[in-house]
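Field log, afternoon session.

UNIT: design team B
ACTIVITY: writing a sequence onto a fixed backbone
BACKBONE:
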């Protein structure tokens, strides 16, 4: 690593620790150097350099082999000549996978409060990646920033579900029209045929393999939306995925029956697309989206009932 990159890393680490202190996530004493290295995703050598700087500017002092926080950081303490660093792809994927898994396993429930620091430790990624990830999803009104690195998982209501599917129908019907207009040599027609075959295979083995439907559901809707060739729709695809993980899977009581119905609805949509029947394909798509909306609203009602009791 070059000298410049070493310096950037050290400066970045200093600023990260200053942010921990400013946000109140570190109070009175800093954690151990081992813990700091894990939180900042750097070596202990880098942590020692950062601590030396904080000692020099009297943010901290050493006391009984611990680092006591003397004062809150000021603007002048921040090392401003650090280039902005973006989280590495594998770090972002790690927090995304971990965060969705704790929601799927119901370890984090609507209304629960959690911290960036704890999420960073549990997911094994640096806190900057965690914060960027959470900020990204906060714009969907699924989580809310409280204060001092604290967040809350929001419970969506029926009004939110109605508005979500109102937009979803507009976008997907438009995307379907775009798909039907694709030239026949476009590779997505072959992908649609492959999806039809995969749905038939799942239908034949649905009792055993019904959990596999979620992957096919994502593939079909993503394939349709890709035909719109609109980068702004990418955020919407992600939102649907997040909603699915946040609320749709909470009610697993009749998942087999729901997925059996959904597979049949998908097959009807795809069959009409392949038959170039725009009218019936649109009708079947709207029916499928209406079914999905009812399922989400039932799940929301179940969550509300559980938290009222």
């Amino acid at each position: 690593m070059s000298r410049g990159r070493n310096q950037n890393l050290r400066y970045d680490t200093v600023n990260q620790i200053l942010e921990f202190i400013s946000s109140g996530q570190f109070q009175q004493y800093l954690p151990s150097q081992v813990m700091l290295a894990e939180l900042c995703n750097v070596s202990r050598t880098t942590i020692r350099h950062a601590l030396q700087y904080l000692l020099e500017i009297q943010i901290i002092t050493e006391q009984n082999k611990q680092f006591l926080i003397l004062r809150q950081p000021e603007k002048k303490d921040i090392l401003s000549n650090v280039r902005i660093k973006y989280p590495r792809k594998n770090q972002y994927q790690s927090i995304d996978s971990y965060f969705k898994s704790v929601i799927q396993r119901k370890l984090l429930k609507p209304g629960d409060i959690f911290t960036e620091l704890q999420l960073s430790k549990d997911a094994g990624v640096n806190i900057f990646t965690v914060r960027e990830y959470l900020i990204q999803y906060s714009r969907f009104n699924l989580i809310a920033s409280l204060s001092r690195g604290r967040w809350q998982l929001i419970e969506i209501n029926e009004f939110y579900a109605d508005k979500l599917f109102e937009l979803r129908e507009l976008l997907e019907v438009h995307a379907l029209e775009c798909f039907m207009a694709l030239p026949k040599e476009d590779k997505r027609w072959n992908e649609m045929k492959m999806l039809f075959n995969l749905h038939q295979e799942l239908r034949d083995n649905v009792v055993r393999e019904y959990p596999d439907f979620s992957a096919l559901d994502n593939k079909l809707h993503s394939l349709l939306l890709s035909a719109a060739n609109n980068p702004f729709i990418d955020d919407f695809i992600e939102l649907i995925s997040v909603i699915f993980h946040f609320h749709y899977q909470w009610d697993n009581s009749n998942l087999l029956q729901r997925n059996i119905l959904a597979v049949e609805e998908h097959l009807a949509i795809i069959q009409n697309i392949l038959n170039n029947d725009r009218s019936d394909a649109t009708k079947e798509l709207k029916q499928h989206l209406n079914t999905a909306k009812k399922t989400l609203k039932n799940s929301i009602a179940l969550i509300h009932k559980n938290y009222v009791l």
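LOG NOTE: The chain has three domains: 3-77, 89-153, 158-308.
NEXT ACTIVITY: expression trials, pending approval
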